[in-house]
From TrEMBL:
Keywords: ATP-binding, Nucleotide-binding. GO terms for cellular component: cytoplasmic side of plasma membrane; cytosol. PANTHER family: SEPTUM SITE-DETERMINING PROTEIN MIND HOMOLOG, CHLOROPLASTIC, SEPTUM SITE-DETERMINING PROTEIN MIND HOMOLOG, CHLOROPLASTIC-RELATED. InterPro entries: CheY-like_superfamily, P-loop_NTPase, ParA/MinD_ATPase. Transmembrane segments: none annotated. This is AAA family ATPase. GO terms for biological process: negative regulation of cell division. One of its GO terms (molecular function) is ATP hydrolysis activity.
Length: 411
């Protein structure tokens, strides 16, 4: 590939790699050749800015901006390349190796459309190219969220957090079904319940409600400091016109990508427009976990009756108490709890709580296979298995939270 002015013999250039030295990204060269054939070229950083002003650049569809840790001293130049590309309606795919989350955050906020880690996962560059070159249909966007959020809203919604302390402990199942039950109880102005999936890497809320993961979510998250009611509302999806949902992004995002101020702003925006904000958290503790804990009115920590849950609950207790964080906010919730007639199981629950020095405030029954089937089909239990014992218990929990909310409003 050429550097000063990329060209081919027969076809116009529709894409360019931009890097300090493209030979440092040999996998990128292979994937670009596979995806674009001969219709691409490569440029240095300074050369890219000059090339944007040439007539040949008018045919550019996207650039692949490839950087590594050595380029972090030139973030201003990287940002200028992204800005100049965006003013010419050229999409930007950011390819990064050994770059800090803070630098990624800065470049994505400046307008990069996609982020792909290097070494490139198989077929990931091709998928990113398809995403940036395929416009999102506007009509579907309008249908997805018919509710327009009003700026200056003065609500102060209750924040309900669900976090599993062990894999498969049911955090997302509780968050999704509790949010839906609360939505069913809300008879006044819609929308009143918002569900936020803050598990940015493995979040499954979209799967459990059969909702698409859209690029606009990452666009909004990438510029939270500029977020307003309109931008936030556009990122939400409506589930059956009752529940508003912010899904996890379509791509995995480093959890350190977000600062406590980012999460604080996101929660504050949701609270100002909804009566209840239900948050599904990742199991991992990150720098913004304290922000969520402090904002939470109710914090459900889900465990099971097994050794891993006991050990993780103890670790969580020690971690919060060592930092003088409000450990007392945690309401330990035992999922797949023993039946009422299982005296041996009840005894084990009591011993577990005593040995850990915690109170198990809520016990959820085992809903069996219908729960898994409901999640796979993308439907809340109230829709797919209304008489399921787990659904009944979550409905009772939602009713008690709703009544408490009404009492607070009256007070």
């Amino acid at each position: 590939m050429s550097s000063e002015t990329p060209h081919t013999d027969t076809n116009a250039i529709v894409a360019c790699t931009v890097s300090r030295d493209v030979q440092n990204f040999d996998l990128l060269i292979e994937d670009m050749e596979s995806a674009m054939g001969e219709n691409w070229g490569d440029l240095g950083f300074a050369e890219a800015l000059a090339f944007f002003n040439q007539p040949e650049a008018e045919s550019l569809s996207f650039i692949a901006l490839a950087i590594d840790g050595n380029d972090e001293d030139n973030l201003v130049l990287m940002g200028e390349i992204i800005t100049q590309a965006k003013t010419r309606d050229i999409k930007v795919i950011l390819i990064a190796e050994d770059v800090t989350p803070a630098s990624l955050h800065q470049l994505l906020r400046q307008g990069a459309d996609e982020f792909v880690p290097y070494p490139l996962p198989e077929q990931e560059l091709q998928a990113a190219i398809e995403r940036v070159t395929t416009p999102e249909p506007e009509p579907e966007e309008a249908i997805a969220n018919p509710h327009q959020l009003q700026s200056g809203s003065a609500r102060e919604g209750a924040v309900i957090v669900c976090q599993g302390l062990a894999g498969g402990s049911g955090s997302t199942t509780l968050a999704v079904n509790l949010a839906w039950e609360l939505a069913l109880l809300s008879d006044h102005e819609q929308p009143s319940v918002c569900l936020l999936d803050l598990d940015m890497q493995h979040g499954s809320v979209a799967t459990y409600l059969d909702l698409p993961r859209r690029e606009i979510v990452m666009e909004m998250l990438g510029q939270i400091d500029e977020m307003d009611a309109e931008m936030f509302g556009q990122a939400l999806l409506s589930f059956q016109d009752k529940l508003q949902v912010l899904t996890a992004p379509s791509e995995m995002v480093p959890l350190e990508f977000f600062t406590p101020d980012d999460i604080e702003r996101l929660i504050a925006m949701a609270r100002s427009h909804f009566d209840f904000v239900v948050i599904d958290l990742p199991r991992t503790l990150v720098q913004w976990s304290e922000c969520v804990l402090n904002r939470a009115h109710v914090y459900f920590s889900l465990i099971e009756l097994d050794m891993r849950s006991a050990q993780n609950a103890l670790r969580m207790k020690r971690a919060l108490q060592s930092e003088d964080l409000p450990f007392e906010k945690l309401r330990f919730t035992l999922n797949r709890a023993p039946k009422f007639t299982d005296l041996s199981g009840k005894s084990r629950v009591k011993r577990m709580a005593e040995s850990l020095g915690i109170s198990i405030d809520l016990q959820l029954p085992d809903g069996g296979k219908p729960v898994v089937q409901s999640c796979d089909h993308g439907l809340p239990l109230a829709v797919s298995a209304a008489k399921n014992p787990l659904r009944k218990e979550i409905a009772k929990l939602a009713l008690s939270l709703h009544e408490l909310g009404q009492q607070d409003v009256a007070a």
